[in-house]
């Protein structure tokens, strides 16, 4: 640890001022290279073959005729693939989805059953599509539904337990003046980063050299080494530019496993890229959810009971829980407080973390239920939040490390024009449109993971900082440069920041809104330490002066607090009751999310998250055919994500949110924008139409059905 | 006697001729990326659904993943690598850069090529699905934000940088020669 010998001074003003992305020029000229953009001498191309049945065993893989096709180099399948570590446990714990081509079981449709490698992509594709695989099929169940007999509540999860309870919910509900009991559902969602996963692997002088698209080069390299039983030092993995992640690029995936297998067997460079359709079954997704919220309150809206239960689906391969019900644990207090997440294993691909995991669907249900409570109590929804502001963590009892939720609402209300809003639903018309406004709260935890960084001073007065961070579009590269410059007390132009190389040492992934917080901490410590050493005099040797940092101790010493970012989401919608069309007219989010390093890129990240909420509220829905067990809309035409024409003026801004106790002060902004935004839209749809839409997405047919039901025609 | 499965073709890309032998199955996208080292044009879906591979073909926007390389012989292809004038960025690129019209950058080459075409199409008086008045005497529509959103809707951005992309296109439109105040805010 370092000791500050001089107080920090605003030498550069770098942090907190807008900087265009350092890699921006490369991105607008096409020079930025992503995983599938790297050439290699003697490159061979792998094409993955996936199962067409939802459950069963592989009977045969007819590789002989395929091997005779032009350019085909290899057909890998469970009968000939290299063995992996069966008990693999990686950065995120045990992960049986990595066991590619290790057995004849087919756990879901779209599971990898073979890899065809050929000289050209065209040859590989034709050969892969020619490969006949036969199966012994078994009955499957892909039907996610509440009350499924196989549902269970997972025990003893180290982070975020599945269940938390205090007080007596039933007694408090019985004693309440007003009770809201409502059920909500959200649809299965898929990350769909614009860049499909791809990896290029080859052995170079005894080292495995990999270019992958990953949210954490070091973590993925370590996991890869563990999976293949390699010396971790023998694996180098880079991911200079990553075309979006959102949670689906944090783990070792099939393309990477297969690229390494093929490169090893063929002793030449092999690239494996997923097709868009394959990304719907091989990289995880967000489960559909079925949720129930029961709120009990006095006539004044003060909560007595809060119960939130949620069910999500997982696979038979690996348990993953979408922790929707955990959302309210730090946000709203009640004497009876019960939040339980359950999960049901189905014959579907394994879900994973997806932007605001738990919080996105959980906030939809709870923030809509709060709106229903406000309506029932005849209280403005913002006033209702004000009456339920806890002094300490409702379940934990811990103090808050800053909680400016009500300030966000006040500032947002002022800017959105909320004051004087007519609370009555269904009374504002604009031509064929019914118009309404809605609001919701947002919160996301601000965690931190240990990271290491190095900072080098060069004789010419410039600096190089290295950290195995990832910039998946967050702006981390630029923000970390600004932080390093601040700590070094130089202008950012004198700092060269290198990222996304596993050789730079341990660092947390770009995930959980913890990337820039965790990496920024390590970068700041290394840079500050270097500045202090330089201040002692002695000059810089010709080969530079390097110091390293490791935040393991500092992160461990962080006092236990309810440490979260907050936000107030606002939306205005117009609904055409004749066609069922919903247009979002404007959105505003006001956030308190710690120190904002780069306002230019922070705004993009926050509005991007809010638009994810819009997309969740109105568009995204993966539909599974129960008969075949496959998705019926596994492409970007059938699975609609918000496009330009869906997105109105979206504004995001923030309040100062200092935490003097926190050594970094950054809380992370990757997810908070995507929390509560779907609820704000759903609440606005109610305000426009008078109908509560509790099932996402709010499709035109759902609007029309609701209108028909209201009109009494059955 | 089987028909040949490859041909020697000459592609005209960013003003330069490139002669190569291509498999007839090779798309323009794969020819650019795998054969010519022009990896700025991105593969997002390979199905014509995302817009990431948008290039200009004889000045009109086209999806390189839906175009066979052999079918583009003799046509002028402009990719993102050919948009800037040497080291000087095109105003559309400059606006994306300064206004943060991207995040991860993967859809950006396609967005930029599309934006170039949007400005051309608009300048040529083409209406869009949201143009209110289609009578000839109404003249070309103002390039409002809604017009930009509609015309750019073939280019998906999962980071959802849409608001900044619209601002960037609007600014680039205002900087067109002879443009003065026809753009509604």
UniProtKB/TrEMBL annotation, chain A:
- Give a GO molecular function annotation for the protein: iron ion binding
Q: Does the keyword Lyase apply?
A: no
What InterPro entries would the database entry show? Ald_Oxase/Xan_DH_a/b, Ald_Oxase/Xan_DH_a/b_sf, Ald_Oxase/xanthine_DH-like, AldOxase/xan_DH_MoCoBD1, AldOxase/xan_DH_MoCoBD2, AldOxase/xan_DH_Mopterin-bd_sf
Identify the taxonomic lineage of the organism of origin: Bacteria, Bacillati, Actinomycetota, Actinomycetes, Kitasatosporales
Q: Residue ranges of the Aldehyde oxidase/xanthine dehydrogenase a/b hammerhead domain?
A: 29-139
- Protein name as annotated: Oxidoreductase
**Which Pfam families does the annotation name?**
Ald_Xan_dh_C (PF01315), MoCoBD_1 (PF02738), MoCoBD_2 (PF20256)
Q: Which residues form a coiled coil?
A: none
Give the residue ranges for region: Disordered: 139-158
Which keywords fit this entry according to its UniProt record? Molybdenum, Oxidoreductase
TrEMBL record, chain B:
The coiled-coil segments of this chain are none
Known PROSITE patterns for this protein? 2FE2S_FER_1, 2FE2S_FER_2
What keywords are assigned to this protein? 2Fe-2S, Iron, Iron-sulfur, Metal-binding, Oxidoreductase
One GO MF term attached to the UniProt entry: oxidoreductase activity, acting on the aldehyde or oxo group of donors
Kindly give the CDD domains that the UniProt entry links to this protein: fer2
To which pathway does this protein belong?
A: Alkaloid degradation; nicotine degradation
Instruction: Give start and end of each 2Fe-2S ferredoxin-type domain.
Output: 7-83
Per the record, the domain of life is Bacteria
- InterPro entries, per the entry: 2Fe-2S-bd, 2Fe-2S-bd_dom_sf, 2Fe-2S_ferredoxin-like_sf, 2Fe-2S_ferredoxin-type, 2Fe2S_fd_BS, Aldehyde_Oxdr_Iron-Sulfur, Beta-grasp_dom_sf
Task: Tell me any Pfam family this protein matches.
Answer: Fer2
Q: Which PANTHER family match?
A: OXIDOREDUCTASE WITH IRON-SULFUR SUBUNIT, OXIDOREDUCTASE, IRON-SULPHUR BINDING SUBUNIT-RELATED-RELATED
Q: What is this protein called?
A: (2Fe-2S)-binding protein
Q: Which organism is it from?
A: Streptomyces caatingaensis
């Amino acid at each position: 640890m370092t000791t500050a010998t001089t107080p920090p001074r605003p030498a550069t003003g770098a942090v907190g001022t807008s900087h265009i992305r350092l890699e921006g020029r490369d991105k607008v000229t096409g020079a930025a290279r992503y995983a599938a953009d790297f050439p290699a001498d003697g490159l061979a191309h792998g094409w993955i073959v996936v199962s067409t049945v939802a459950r069963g065993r592989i009977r045969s893989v007819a590789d002989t005729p395929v091997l005779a096709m032009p350019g085909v180099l290899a057909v890998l399948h469970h009968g000939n693939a290299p063995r992996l570590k069966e008990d693999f446990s990686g950065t995120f714990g045990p992960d049986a989805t990595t066991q590619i081509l290790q057995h004849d079981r087919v756990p879901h449709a779209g599971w990898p059953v073979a890899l065809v490698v050929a000289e050209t992509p065209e040859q590989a594709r034709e050969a892969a599509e020619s490969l006949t695989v036969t199966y012994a099929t078994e009955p499957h169940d892909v039907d996610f539904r509440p009350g499924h007999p196989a549902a269970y509540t997972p025990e003893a999860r180290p982070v975020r337990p599945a269940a938390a309870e205090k007080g007596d919910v039933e007694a408090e509900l019985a004693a309440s003046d007003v009770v809201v009991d409502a059920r909500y559902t959200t649809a299965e969602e898929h990350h769909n980063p614009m860049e499909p996963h791809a990896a290029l692997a080859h052995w170079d002088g005894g080292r495995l050299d990999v270019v992958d698209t990953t949210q954490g080069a070091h973590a993925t390299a370590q996991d890869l080494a563990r999976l293949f039983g390699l010396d971790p030092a023998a694996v180098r993995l880079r991911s200079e530019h990553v075309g979006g992640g959102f949670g689906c690029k944090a783990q070792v995936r099939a393309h990477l496993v297969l690229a390494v297998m093929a490169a090893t067997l063929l002793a030449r460079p092999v690239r494996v890229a997923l097709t868009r359709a394959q990304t719907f079954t091989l990289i995880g997704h967000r489960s559909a959810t079925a949720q129930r919220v029961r709120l009990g309150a006095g006539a004044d809206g003060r909560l007595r009971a809060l119960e939130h239960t949620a069910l999500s689906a997982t696979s038979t391969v690996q348990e993953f829980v979408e922790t929707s019900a955990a959302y309210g644990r730090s946000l709203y207090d009640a004497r009876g407080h019960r939040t339980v997440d359950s999960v049901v294993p189905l014959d579907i691909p394994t879900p994973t973390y997806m932007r605001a995991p738990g919080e996105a669907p959980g906030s939809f249900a709870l923030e809509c239920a709060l709106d229903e409570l406000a309506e029932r109590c005849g209280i403005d929804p913002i006033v209702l939040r004000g009456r339920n502001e806890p002094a300490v963590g409702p379940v934990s009892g811990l103090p808050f490390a800053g909680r400016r939720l009500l300030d966000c609402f006040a500032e947002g209300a002022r800017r959105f024009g909320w004051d004087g809003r007519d609370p009555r639903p269904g009374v504002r018309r604009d031509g064929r449109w019914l118009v309404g406004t809605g609001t919701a709260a947002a919160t996301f935890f601000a965690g931190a993971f240990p990271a290491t960084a190095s900072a080098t001073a060069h004789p010419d007065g410039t600096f190089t900082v290295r950290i195995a961070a990832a910039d998946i579009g967050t702006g981390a590269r630029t923000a970390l440069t600004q932080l390093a410059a601040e700590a070094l007390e130089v202008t950012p132009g004198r700092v060269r920041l290198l990222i996304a190389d596993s050789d730079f040492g341990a660092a947390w992934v770009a995930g959980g809104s913890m990337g820039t917080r965790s990496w920024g901490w390590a970068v700041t410590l290394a840079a500050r330490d270097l500045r202090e050493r330089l201040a002692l005099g002695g000059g810089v040797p010709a080969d530079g002066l390097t110091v390293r940092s490791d935040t393991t101790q500092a992160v461990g010493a962080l006092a236990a607090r309810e440490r979260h970012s907050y936000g107030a989401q606002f939306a205005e919608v117009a609904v055409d009751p004749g066609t069922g069309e919903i247009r979002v007219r404007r959105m505003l989010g006001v956030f308190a999310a710690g120190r904002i390093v780069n306002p230019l890129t922070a705004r993009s990240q926050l509005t991007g998250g809010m638009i994810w909420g819009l997309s969740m509220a109105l568009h995204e829905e993966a539909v599974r055919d129960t008969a075949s067990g496959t998705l019926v809309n596994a492409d970007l035409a059938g699975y609609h994500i918000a496009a330009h024409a869906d997105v109105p003026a979206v504004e995001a801004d923030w309040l100062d949110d200092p935490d003097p106790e926190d050594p970094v002060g950054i809380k992370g902004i990757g997810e908070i924008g995507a929390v509560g935004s779907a609820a704000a839209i759903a609440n606005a749809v109610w305000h426009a139409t008078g109908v509560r839409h509790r099932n996402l997405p709010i499709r035109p047919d759902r609007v029309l059905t609701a209108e028909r039901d209201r009109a009494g025609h059955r | 006697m089987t028909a040949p499965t490859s041909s020697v073709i000459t592609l005209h890309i960013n003003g330069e001729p490139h002669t190569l032998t291509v498999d007839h199955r090779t798309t323009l996208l794969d020819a650019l990326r795998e054969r010519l080292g022009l990896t700025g044009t991105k593969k997002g879906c390979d199905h014509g659904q995302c817009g990431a591979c948008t290039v200009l073909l004889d000045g009109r926007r086209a999806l390189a993943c839906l175009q066979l390389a052999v079918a583009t012989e003799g046509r002028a292809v402009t990719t993102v690598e050919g948009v800037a004038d040497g080291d000087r960025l095109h105003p559309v690129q400059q606006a994306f850069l300064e206004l943060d019209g991207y995040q991860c950058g993967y859809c950006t080459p396609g967005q930029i090529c599309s934006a170039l075409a949007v400005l051309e199409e608009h300048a040529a008086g083409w209406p869009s699905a949201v143009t209110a008045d289609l009578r000839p005497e109404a003249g070309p529509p103002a390039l409002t934000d809604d017009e930009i959103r509609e015309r750019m809707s073939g280019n998906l951005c999962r980071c959802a940088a849409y608001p900044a992309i619209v601002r960037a296109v609007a600014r680039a439109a205002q900087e067109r020669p002879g443009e003065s105040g026809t753009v509604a805010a």
